[in-house]
Every structure is written in C-alpha cells, then in structure tokens.
Amino acid sequence: MALFTNAVQLVSKVLVAADTEFHAPSLEEFFPPAVLFEGTPFEINRIMLIRFFMTALVVLIFVLGTRNLKLVPTRGQSVIELGLGFVRENIAEEMLGKKDAKRFLPLLTSMFFIILAFNITGIVPGFNIAASSVFGLPLVLALIAYVAFIYAGLKKHPGTFLRNSLFPPGVPVWLYPIVTPIELLSTFIIRPITLSLRLLMNMIVGHLLLVLLFGATHFLFLGADGWLKGLGLGTLAGGLVFTLFEILVAFLQAYVFTVLTAVYIQLALAEDH
Question: Of the candidates 169, 187, 182, 176, which has an alpha carbon nearest to the alpha carbon of residue 271?
C-alpha cells in the first residue's frame, strides 16, 4: 500500500504541474449509488448487478457445457472438463485424497469458479471493478469455508474435534490457560477473517492501480503539454501490463482461497483430532 500511495502522489504532482485536473482513485468507487431498492435491506448497486450477472453466466456455461456430454468431447465440453479436472486433481484430491475429495468437490468447485468469475470482472470493459472487492462477499465465502471446516471436523471426530482443537494433545495441562485462548483465537476467529481479507485486499489494490494508471494516461494525453504527454505512453504501457497481471491475480486468488478451504477441511479430518 505504501508503494501505491507513493505512486499516486508522484502522478498527482506531475499532473498538477501540467495544470491538469486529476482525481486519484479512492475507496468511494467501491460503494456506487443504489440502482434499485435504495434505503432498504435489499438495496442493489452496480457491483451487486455484476454479481448477479456473473453468477447467472457461470451457471449458464456449466449447464450448456454439460447437458449433452459426448464420448468424444466438443471444444466447449473439453474446456469444461479441463476446468473441473483442474479443481478435482490439483485441489480436492491433492489436499483431501480421493475418498474425501468426492464429498467436498461440489463445494470446492463452486467456490473456485465463482471467485474466478467475480475477480475477472475487474478487467472486463463496462464492469471495470471486481465483484469480490467489497468485504461482504469475501466474508460470506470465508464463513462458508469456516462452516465446512467445522462440519468436517464434527462429522469425522464428533467426540474429540472441539476438545483437541482447543486443548491440543501432548501439551502440559498447566499450559492450557495460555494455549487454549490462542487456539480459540487463531483457529475459530482469525482464520475466516484472514481468509476474507486476503481476497479482498488483492482485488482492491488491483483495481486502484488500474484506475491510477489509466486515469493518468487519459489526463496526460488530453491535458498535459509538451514532453509531459510522453509520460502517458509509460502509464498506458503500465496499465496494459497490470491488466495482464490482474488476470493472473484473479486466477491465483481463486486458487489460493479454494486451496486454503481444502487445507482447513483436511486439518479437521486429520486423525489427531
């Protein structure tokens, strides 16, 4: 964030020197005005509409891609199978093993593709913001992962899961007053918060960087004089590079979030519980 702040200040100084009005990106962009049901608990803004659209698109893609499966797959079926195979082999089975992977594969697959779809909207023209860049959605996804973790542990070890999580075996009894609060905080409170913040902050920073670079390009090309216009080429190139980078980040954040969910479930299923 310090690097981003310094970049904003540097570009702002250049643009002010060129007598050009420049509005640095701010967090207000993540809270657009209401479109429907303003002032009610069901208020819908542009980001909510993007979420609705992308959810419907993901469902439509999988319905159309899997309704007429063939022994010799078509291109569309091959893409769907490649994506599903990636989640199954590189996340579910890798972390949970084949037996437990079957139980949690629907959850992990849904989580991966919905996060990927919501992340990628940050570079889609017309959307221009990640649908996962407001805290509510990452928190809901983290709570789903948290519930899956608790469910897996209670299902596999109903009598010992919570006890061993809070009172780890092998720890001297006199250390429990210190260890138990730490385990409670780290395992049952901090874990969903850090899981959601990891996704949220990457999407926020990515959006702000792109707005900064392309906003600077616009003002340098149209408002600056002389040699300052040449700086617009640099900010434009930076914006294009970061756009490609955001595609990678969108995929990596979906992968990391899903992998961590699988890891938490695996920890709950571990025999030492």
Answer: 169
